[in-house]
Design a protein that fits this description.
The chain is mostly helical and 134 residues long. The chain has five helices and no strands. The chain is elongated.
Length: 134
């Protein structure tokens, strides 16, 4: 596996960014969705939290911290999936849109799980434990 130098190189982060942007676009183009301020803010925060937790965990420089923040990102994936059902139930999105976004979020969750397993099985501790390197 190649060495990743930035969180933005991680495919799970890239797809999480796409999902966040898609949700933003959906909300921006839906007058009903835009008016439900609390729900709109919550779904955008939780979808953003997926990518932010991946980035923060990566930036911590230690594998234990990274695994912890990846688990937070996985939790945010589940939160977004639940909110997608609510958005469909409220009539803000179609079942087709929910299924499409849900598939992407499932994919992110699988990538995160695989990344966590890889990190946990690695004998490396993380960059902050490497002597003389940053």
């Amino acid at each position: 596996m190649a060495t990743i130098k930035s969180f933005s190189e991680l495919h799970c982060w890239q797809i999480a960014r796409e999902v966040n942007q898609e949700l933003f676009d959906i909300i921006h183009n839906s007058p009903q969705f835009k008016l439900n301020f609390g729900f709109k803010d919550q779904i955008l925060r939780s979808s953003g939290s997926i990518m932010d937790n991946i980035a923060e965990g990566f930036g911590r420089g230690g594998n234990n911290e990274f695994v912890l923040f990846l688990s937070y990102a996985n939790g945010s994936c589940c939160e977004v999936q639940s909110q997608l059902f609510r958005a469909e139930d409220f009539g803000y999105i179609s079942s087709e849109i929910r299924l499409n976004l849900n598939q992407k979020v499932n994919s992110i969750g699988s990538m995160i799980t695989n990344l966590r397993r890889h990190i946990q099985s690695s004998s490396l501790k993380g960059i902050k434990y490497n002597k003389g390197e940053k």
